[in-house]
Amino acid sequence: MAYDIDMIKKVYSQMAERVNTAREVVGKPLTLSEKILYSHLWDGKAKNAFTRGKDYVEFSPDRIACQDATAQMALLQFMQAGKKQVAVPTTVHCDHLIQAKMGAAIDLQAANTSSSEVFDFLESVSNKYGIGFWKPGAGIIHQVVLENYAFPGGMMIGTDSHTVNAGGLGMVAIGVGGADAVDVMAGMPWELKFPKLIGVKLTGKLSGWTSSKDVILKVAGILTVKGGTGAIIEYFGEGARNLSCTGKGTICNMGAEVGATTSTFGYDDSMERYLKATNRADVAEAANEVREHLTGDDEVYANPEQYFDEVIEINLDELKPHLNGPFTPDLATPISEMGAKAKEHDWPINVDWGLIGSCTNSSYEDLTRAASIAKQAVEKKVKAKSDFGINPGSEQIRFTAERDGLLQIFEDLDATIFTNACGPCIGQWDRSDRKGEEKNTIVHSFNRNFSKRADGNPNTHAFVGSPEMVAAIAISGRLDFDPTRDKLMNEDGEEVMLDEPQGIELPAKGFAVEDAGYVAPKEDGSSVDVKVAEDSERLQLLTPFEPWDGKNLTGAKLLIKAWGKCTTDHISMAGPWLRYRGHLDNISNNCLIGAINAYNKKSNFVKNQLTGEYDGVPAVQREYKKEGIPTVVVGDHNYGEGSSREHAAMEPRHLGVKVVLVKSFARIHETNLKKQGLLGLTFANEDDYDLIQEDDTFNLIDLENFAPDTPLTIEIVHADGSKDTIKANHTYNAPQIEWYKHGSALNLIKKQNAA
Ligand code: MIC
Ligand code: SF4
Description:
The protein is an alpha/beta fold. Alpha-methylisocitric acid is lined by residues 69-70, 96, 160-162, 175, 426, 448, 574, 642-645.
């Protein structure tokens, strides 16, 4: 039986009425995304239609998921909200804090020792507040959610940008910062700007070497890393129905890489099969009863241009396998062209590692497709030229894959089976073959390949591909290997070719598991004691941020003008820093250390205007803080792209940065800044970015009149005394301005709860 089946049945019992009302109010047939959004309004049935891309709307999500690296901050905040229990079903998953080094058994034990303080904290907070807890080793949050919690037509939020994975099971699942999750845990509405809608019509059927991953690699190439910003991507058409449920999950998962709010697919037979195979026939039956409401209306899919803001069409019969990268997930190259492109750009051809895993591609089907390639290598006597590492998505997948002999196939090829966890995908990788900053290439089935992400080396060129393509490339050891065309030399000196991969959608003998790793919370957790040691270097109770003094901001110094791509990995690096995710002061020592200073193109090397000396960003910022001098961070386009981690907003806030002024923001990061009481502003005129000089001082001369839809005026005073006065836009609505006034959204919740 499924978890929280009563909640799911309740959602379905309201579905017909809510969808029908929404259709009347909107006055036309509805997409699936609209059906889910309008049936999850905080105020119940729809009363009016919302303008996409404009109206802020309050929603009522059905559930919440948090992973260990973000849950610490989310729960530290929730503990301050003064509530006894979480208001909606919530789970915590321990997956980010486990390093891949020797293989699952040893690595998991090492993580349980080195991070016991954090895991114990998360477990006890979960127990206290009624939160389901998934132990280290249970699996990667999004695979565990897909296997246990996602349900067609539902709405969830999660403190991780790849929460969107659950779109593979027909949800609207959205990644948020911890402060957003705290709102919903505390029984309050969750606010989102009503998204725009991008329709992707899939025709045809995948075959040969092409897989679901290639659909999203192609979409990423079309939309680029910001093309999906503020939009839900809805996939439909015969091609969509032909995809497996976990394949749909892969596509939705990587929608985060184009900045999409989320992605989703209508309920179909593949989802029904998956629900039944994962022990949730009850959910499938309930969904079948409201089936028509769990997909877009026929008229919409027949004439998508009339209903979506943008429509893309992809013919799966013609789609070719791709590799995306290096350094950005939207640089899409069909594998047949990789050789020439790699030569042109001087990307290293030899591949050191092939890594299969991450929330994107670690399902049972993924493992079978990759194993079908690995098996051929063993049978055809080809030795893998690259090292090979595998992270299964969950203990259920691992256990089943072991039973079915899949893991043995990889082991026969000398692969290392790492823990069911994020591992190298989030820089939790003790890479033994290369230290230092040597230029090298790896291929993986993950979603992100930003500089330094997997191993901390800025010269590691990481390419993203499907699990089976990663397997083929790891076997050949070459980035330019095209298995549809190229031969390999075996140990007997014969030339052999790899046959097309064969996947098994769902295990013929069913899934099996002995201990899935779930710990249910106490019915009444009021007696549970949550301990945080005073001198802990990993956990620190939060002190509320100072409220706004109501005055204009004057005399603010430029901390850094970030140049080019500035993702959350640049603002608050993961890898070794994951260690401090529960300790705001300690993790603030990584604040913006990856951002490139526009004036010298170096990272972590900025001018201290008080002394004229250069130093690391956190050190300089701490000097300003000591002197009580406010600061401004300036940035380029899509600032804060990538993850949901609110540390990227809390650190600057904690250190005394007041304003983040950029050309444009990634959605989650902009909200995180607002929630934590910072001013997130965008240049009204993009070119004003060029006016900012290294010794500038900023005055926000009309902040006292801070109001919705009213740009702010910034006076920029240069070192020679000359001035530029520019306009900055913002998207704060009235309630969000209240967060700013109170110093943070959490301060406001606390005040409301105390009242
Ligand atoms: C990531 O893939 O970057 C992460 C780590 O999962 C993040 C969350 C985090 O920083 O903890 C995400 O995508 O939101
Ligand atoms: Fe974990 Fe990587 Fe997925 Fe983020 S993208 S949740 S780090 S596996």
